[in-house]
């Protein structure tokens, strides 16, 4: 006889699938941001434009600060990718924990009869 699912079981499954999809959506968003960042030309990504005139071209401090900002953005993307993968992993863990709990409950009911 198939096991009956209670409303809390269905609710847990829906929440776990939504958490998983949120994590996948965040991963897609992070990858699209990284794709855009890495396909941007260097002058545009660093927001530095050279004219060929040494007096009007940006100095070493401006180039260094813009490069530091670019490295910060890359590190931020890395941290966001880790966070998004942890969110999707939590959704999967919630789903399988609910399945495991259902099987244990069904096994206890079968042995008590």
* Relative strand content: under 5%
Mean pLDDT: 85
Largest sheet: none
- Helical amount: over 70%
Helices, by number, come to: 3
- Low-pLDDT segments, ≥5 res: none
Task: Identify the notable features of this structure and list them briefly.
113 residues; rod-shaped; 81% helix; mainly alpha; single chain
How would you characterize the overall build of this protein?
The chain is mainly α and 113 residues long. The chain has a domain at 59-113. The protein has helices at 7-39, 42-46, 60-112.
Describe how the helices and strands are arranged.
Layout: H1 7-39, H2 42-46, H3 60-112
Could you provide a short overview of the structure?
This protein is mostly helical and 113 residues long. Helices cover 81% and strands 0% of the residues. The protein has a domain at 59-113.
């Amino acid at each position: 006889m198939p096991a009956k699912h209670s409303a809390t079981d269905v609710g847990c499954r829906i929440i776990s699938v939504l958490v998983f999809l949120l994590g996948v959506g965040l991963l897609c968003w992070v990858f699209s941001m990284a794709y855009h960042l890495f396909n941007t030309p260097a002058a545009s990504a660093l927001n530095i434009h050279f004219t060929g005139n040494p007096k009007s071209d940006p100095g070493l401090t401006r180039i260094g600060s813009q490069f530091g900002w670019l490295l910060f953005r890359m590190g931020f993307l890395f941290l966001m990718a880790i966070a998004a993968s942890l969110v999707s992993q939590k959704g999967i863990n919630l789903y399988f924990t609910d399945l495991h709990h259902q099987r244990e409950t069904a096994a206890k009911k079968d042995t008590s009869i």
